[in-house]
Amino acid sequence: MAPTSIERSSSSSSTSIPPWKYDVFLSFRGEDTRENFTDHLYTSLIERGIHTFRDDEEIERGSEITPKLLKAIEESRFCVVVFSKGYAYSRWCLDELVKIIECVKENGQTIIPIFYHVDPSDVRKQTGSFTEAFVNHEKQYEEETKRWKAALREVSNISGWHLENGYEYVLIKKITKDICKRLSCKILHVGENIVGMDFHLEKLKSFISIKLNEVRMIGIYGIGGIGNTAIAKAVCNSISYQFDGSSFLENIRVMGNCCGVLQLQQKLLYDILKGRNIKLHNIDEGINVIKDRLHAKKVLIVVDDVDNLCQLEYIVGKHNWFCPGSRIIITTRDKHLLDVHGVDETYEAKELHHEESIALFSRYAFKQSLPKDDYKNLLNRAIGYAKGLPLALKVLGIFLFGKTIPEWESSLCKLERKLPMEIQSALKISFDGLDDVEKEIFLDIVCFFKGKDRDFVSRILNGCNFYAESGIRVLVDKCLLTIKNNNIDMHDLLQHMGWEIVRKQCLKEPGRRSRLWKGEDVHHVLTRNTGTEAIEGIILDTLTGRKRGV
In the 3-class helix/strand/coil scheme, how is 212-251 assigned residue by residue? Predict the structure, then answer.
């Protein structure tokens, strides 16, 4: 049953809700459940990373709730009340319940009642085991009894959890899962200005197939700046509550050396085993411990930004390392790694559509979802420049925010000649991972062959001993190229990135660069005779307006 909350009082509606120190406050009669049900529930909540307050005092309590306990109630997002057969005998528990209701009405927390071998109607009507307790209370505490009964009626009308028959651990697992879902446990920061994520989530959830009781590995790949990591975080936030444990191993590429892999193995174990530090001495030991400790837990693991197969082999090596029902999500810029590792499904993150691009760009450039009317003509230039790449839309929007129309025009002209450093750096990571021959092939395609027939380009590159078929396949796998109708294509910003690499070979003298493709640079070199042996290729505009390689 899904618990509901008591309405906040109207007088406090304008008061801000205090920040929660605790996720859950446990209210219970220690004599009844401290050493069994409540202890097991507390352990389950703590193991899922839910910050839970439990009063552990075993001695006889005083007549009043301590300030410390009252403060804990006020600072807890959820108040879980365990009604047991002896609950009503404790004046302390009844006073605590009254205080909980008062705090909930003021601060907007949620009460979750658990009826532990007690019928909810007995709590509501003070019948059954509650009758005798209140016979005694009414003799000594007439006024308090009225408040206690009202509190019991109010809380017992909230839908909660009822344990009458069956296994306690099954109910505890359900309660923990429900609270975890409501808390959105281990929320990973995705960002505020997110556009188009619903489509990614819908598609990926169909691949993940959460109901299948088998281990599934899902690969997400795409060009740098497309949002692989953000997509993986959103998926993790959406489904992590359905697992016994989860771990998000971010930016593996940076930590991917031998020492870094060992740290990642330790982080994985720390995350899944709820903060237990396990000292690993080497990677082989880490593999054995992962297989030994995680084979009985249904886990969600995200391995983010992989660029080397050994990173996967050492952290999420094989399906049989993990418990059935586990899900492994891998993000990378290299689809080939996913194929070799044997993932069950691959998902390519695509560029945003035009409307989505406008919405994302506008959130950064105008701090709203729609563009300002005065800027609509310039907006199309900006959107056309980014070509649906989320990183570019963000960088561009931030750069243009608050600028006048003339400043926009000047900035866009500059950007068309020189890629912003943040975009250049993000895209260049994939280029830096190529070998020397693959880099030459990429730069040749950037400068001379974008949009050309693959077979035609391969013949020319093979004439330079570049092993074109192999190199082009690598570039496609690394999301640096696409093949459409046998023509070679790439994202416009990747081409800008490649141009910038060549330009930086010599900023002031084009004749010292390896490739010339701009008309003014070709004219400069030929008319001033500044060419050098560095030049490997030129593309020249003839009078007919067509381009020819020289």
Answer: CCCCEEEEEECCCCCCHHHHHHHHHHHHHHHCCEEEEECC
Q: What is the pTM of this model?
A: 0.74
As a whole number of angstroms, the distance between CA 277 and CA 267 comes to: 9
Angle at 441 between CA 439 and CA 445, to 5 degrees: 115
Residue 55 C-beta-side C-alpha neighbours within 13 Å: 27
Q: Is 318 helix (H, G, I), strand (E, B) or coil?
A: coil
Helix axes 283-294, 258-272, angle to 10 degrees: 20
The answer to whether 96 is a known catalytic residue is yes
pLDDT > 90 fraction of the chain, expressed in percent and rounded: 57
Which uninterrupted H or E stretch holds 484? Answer: strand 482-484
Q: What is the DSSP letter of 486?
A: T
Q: What gap in Å lies between CA 138 and CA 172, rounded to an integer?
A: 34
For the chain, what is the radius of gyration of the CA atoms? 32
Residues in the chain: 550
Strand arrangement of the beta sheet that strand 515-516 belongs to: 515-516, 537-541, 547-549
CB atoms within 10 A of CB 66: 12
pLDDT score, position 288: 96
Give the integer Cα–Cα distance in Å for 193 and 368. 10
Which two structure tokens, joined as six digits, stand for 22?
């605790």
Please tell me which residue in 96, 351, 440, 500 is annotated as part of the active site: 96
d(CA 51, CA 104): 18
Segment 499-531, tens digit of pLDDT: 999 999 999 999 999 999 998 999 999 999 999
Torsion angle of the four alpha carbons 112, 115, 116, 121, in this order, in degrees rounded to the nearest 10 = 170
